[in-house]
Design a protein that fits this description.
Radius of gyration of chain B: 22 Å
Strand content of chain B: 25-35%
Low-confidence stretches of chain A: none
Largest interface: A-B, 38 and 39 residues
CATH topology of the largest domain in chain A: Spore Coat Polysaccharide Biosynthesis Protein SpsA, Chain A
CATH architecture of the largest domain in chain A: Alpha-Beta Complex
Largest sheet of chain A: 9 strands, mixed
Strand content of chain A: 25-35%
Number of strands of chain B: 29
Radius of gyration of chain A: 21 Å
CATH class of the largest domain in chain A: Alpha Beta
Oligomer: heterodimer
Helix content of chain B: 10-25%
Number of domains of chain A: 2
Number of strands of chain A: 28
Low-confidence stretches of chain B: none
Shape of chain B: globular
Structural class of chain A: alpha/beta
Largest sheet of chain B: 9 strands, mixed
Helix content of chain A: 10-25%
Mean pLDDT of chain B: 93
Mean pLDDT of chain A: 95
Distance between the termini of chain A: 51 Å
Chain lengths: ~375, ~400
Amino acid sequence: MKLPLTGVINLIHEADEMEALTANRCLATVPFGGRYRLIDFVLSSMVNSGIPKVAVFAHRKFRSLMDHLGSGANWDLHRKQSGLFVLPPSMEDQTDFGKGDLYHFYRHRDYFARSASDHVVIARSHMVCNVDFAKVLDQHRESGADITVVCKQTPEGTPGLARKARVDETGRIVEMQDHFGRLDSDIVSMEMYVLGKELLLDLVETSLAQGRDHFVRHSVLSRLNQLRVHAYMHEGVLGVVNNIAAYYRHSMELLQPEVWRELFFKPSAIYTKVKDEPPTHYRSGADVTHSLIANGCDIEGTVTGSILFRGVKVAKGAVVRNSIVMQNGVIGENGALDSCILDKDVEIRPQTQLRGSSEVPFIALKRKVI
Amino acid sequence: MRKNECIAMLLAGGEGRRLGVLTKDLAKPAVPFGGKYRIIDFTLSNCVHSGIETVGVLTQYQPLVLTQHLGIGSPWGLDRREGGMHVLPPYVRQKGGTWYKGTANAIYQNLGFIESYDPEYVLIISGDHIYKMNYDLLLDAHKKNNADATIAVISVPWADASRFGILSVDEDGRVVEFAEKPKNPTSNLASMGVYMFTWSVLKEALIRDEADRQSSNDFGKDVIPTLLADGARLFSYQFSDYWKDVGTIDSLWEANMDLLEERPSLQLNDRSWRIFTASPNQPAQYVAPTARVQGSLINEGCVVEGAVNRSVLFNGAQVGEGSLVEDSILMPGAIVGKNAKIIRAIVGEGAVVGDGCRVGSVDAAEIAVVGSGETIRLPEELKEAEPV
């Protein structure tokens, strides 16, 4: 059923400390979980919740994003009406590029004006989670809040960069700080904001009129006193993935079957671009344990505690431990990896040994031959 | 409209009776194959890679699963503004209608469809076989020979020849004799059921065949022999790669096992000739610390906690801790509990083999089959017994 909610995935000035992994791509298209890109999680959540129309506000290095999203058909967003809208910066001149997200929302205000839904959800691409926005919207309406922010209680903290919030007993957010703030709270913001369309357009206009162009800082954080901003507590799995430590840790969490089941199936499936790879071939002599393996791999060696993306080859005698090997990686004979992240199309020559640590994994750039 | 030089008509109405419980609720072309695919994916992908982008798919027997799988042809890139894939079930006319009486009659009933594309050539294929073939080369040979019809053939062991339509050819490859399932074969060139026809010749032959009350309206039994008797230019086209009719439980099992060889004669991992299929969209497979997987093909969405040896696991299949799956096929969503033993077996879609159960055995003459959706459990009193 259609949910009266319009989706926005906001890639403008996303906090990104992914180092080499975002050298040639935006954060949204960092490969994750063996066959996905980060943006797949929030995009699939929106589709599964019944959101009929989603705009992706593209900003920088978006070739891989356009390639990945295509017509939106893989997320069932290739539709006669509504569907997927990719909105790159619409600029008067080059200096506009550096302006904040509110400016870009303003330039694309027709997108909001033309949507039939009376509510909007503004989200980021780097939250690895499976959220039902219908429940968020329900709570938003029942609580009478002006803005509802999806949050998650994380007693162990998060290695990724996330805003922290202090929530009172009524569920109202009374304080919220950027990731570098000193607020002592274990509630992190998942950067998903549900609000009325009219309120959003009003905030865009008034903030810009005051020379302010940053949605969260200038339209939400500075108005915590005037607006009723409430938290919706997400119960499911969450990975805030915008630095290497978080990328590695949350990837490895997928090797826990309960995390795998929850993230990929509850409440609904996560979609991605289909690649038509055949099933993975485990040859005699292969020794694979405690790993997540995508299709199209050809494994003759040993793989343990690792994630192999689509089309990876592990030759005879090679050993892959605690590592993440992205699409089409090749590990030559007797090669050995421990705690490495290999970007796409990396080739490890025979006999080569590479070693990082779980705190500082060794990272190989796309298409490197080592 | 752009001119279509060649269109394909894909016969997909077969029941596949010899596949028993596996085709109880679905047509043979929809039977799962190779850990990810359905049999029809191979011919559809061949069409696309051969540059044939107008395909009529003739359905009849149990079409639900098949038509769901086909959709509007998107997985094969056949959802086209012009041409593309069309599902063609039998239909009713003003003066009533009939089921497709035979392979030739199925095409005859769709003369109008073919006419609307006005092709030079029509390729007749079926959705029953596993092979990768470039039909464009077949068309080249057909044109070079100025043939009326060209039949793709493959050499089969002499012992098996009496199971096929057998062709005898002269040194130019021209067909001199055609015998459907001969008792004493004079050649070992078997028809693959892949025919390239010059459209004007086929049209006339179909109209004549339909008018013949004695005819069983079948290509192999009627149309080809009649054309041959009339002196039409019938040529053979020798194909020498992997080709398999997976019409029986044994051949289906064998063809799956063929994929597990060190160098399979049918290479699925071929970037230049991808086999496309409707994606089930499931996460990467999880191989647990207790798992041991050897010489097997495993698809996305699987969870392996036990041992898997020389087997094919389709999407979403699960193997519990302490279980052994050997020389077997687990079809989509098949679940094997803990401490179970599956040997030389095919477990159908969504079937459940409970904890401690045994299916099949090393020395059984026949491949054991658990039908789709079936559940096998131990009687309650055995549940506490020793693990097998």
